[in-house]
Amino acid sequence: MKYRPFGKTGIKVSALGFGCMRLPLNSEDSGDINEAEATRMIRHAIDMGVNYIDTAWGYHREQSEPLVGRVLRDGYREKVYLATKLPSWLIHVAEDMDKHLNEQLWRLQTDHIDFYLLHSLNKDYWENYLKLNVFDWAEKKLSEGKIRHLGFSFHDDYAVFEKILNGYDHWDFCQIQYNYLDVEAQAGKRGLKAAAEKGLGVVIMEPLRGGNLAKIPAPRRVGEAFAKSPHAWTPANWSLQWIWNQPEVSLLLSGMSTMEQVEQNLTSADQSGVGLFMDAEHQVIEEVQQAYKGLAPVPCTHCEYCLPCPNGVFIPDIFKIYNESKMFDQMERGKRWYKAEIKPENQANQCVECGNCESMCPQHIQIIDWLKVAHNELETTS
Ligand code: SF4
Ligand code: SF4
């Protein structure tokens, strides 16, 4: 196992962290974890040098934390740094913070959390936390030793990330979504660098974009780009090595579901290091990025020049959902995403064809026609 510095904490963490949100199941129910197999996988990873275990209140319908508590018995708790998260969506009054932390300590059978995150921060949760004086509370818990390091995980745009990063002087770490297709999304590369420059440890989540970047076979043109390299790496290994090559990254989390994935990731982590990528490897990733872009039917760059639509259509978000559904051949997932994320009054069928947006689009996209195509394929009757 390779170990990397965790910001300015002085702690060295394993390049690979175990994310406990996609553990093996006994049935379709995400709360029905296959405990024997999950225990075997997590303990094996720890035996092989993984020293960062990440869970959260809500993972596996609240069964992940209790399971991790049981897995870490028999001396395993002392071998790892344990990370969990305050569920931001359940914090309505100041007392909710204590209530959840105390319950988490009980579930995890421990007297302290090594790395405690404010979970999934966005603009609204951040403002709510400020209103509830979260830092007075967190500093008290730090001084009591119940939490050892404070950080946040993040899902919003870069401007919000910057605000949160600079909104508190004593963050120890943050956790961001990052992979070679999300270089500019959310915090992105800019956020990674800004956080590292401030001395924060940076934990990477979704390194394989929910498994999509690990698929075998990869889409044809993506596979052709990988095949140009002499490395016989799997698509997953390419994605992980690309992340580990960056010195600002402290560790990446993988939500492993099988022992085979654990073994593969352990092997990848052993090979990892800053400086592994030379020009030739960067060239391969650039070609892979272009190949994925070529699979997106609508050449929308999400620049938002077309907004606001006078009729409320969320043009770039609709194209993002449509493009991703096509790129990864996941129309059913796209339909669920469209229904969940875009309210009926903002959906593509609200377009009255006024043409305002098309005159603003620097990519000269035939927005009106593409909105019709996207809506036809994404709408659900249920
Ligand atoms: S053409 Fe449709 S999507 Fe474009 S601005 Fe007009 S109503 Fe909105
Ligand atoms: S202006 Fe064009 S490229 Fe920019 S977000 Fe709108 S549709 Fe996409």
- Largest β sheet strand count, sense and barrel closure: 8 strands, parallel, barrel
Strand order of the largest sheet: 3-4-5-6-7-8-9-10
What binds here, in terms of ligands, is: iron/sulfur cluster
Percent strand equals 5-15%
The top level CATH class name of the largest domain: Alpha Beta
Domain count: the total is 2
Q: Could you give the count of β-strands?
A: 10
Instruction: Indicate the radius of gyration in whole angstroms.
Output: 22 Å
Query: What would you call the shape?
Result: globular
Question: Which secondary-structure class do the elements indicate?
Answer: alpha/beta
The CATH superfamily of the largest domain turns out to be NADP-dependent oxidoreductase domain
For the record, the CATH architecture of the largest domain stands as Alpha-Beta Barrel
* Number of discrete helical segments: 16
Instruction: Please bin the fraction of helical residues.
Output: 40-55%
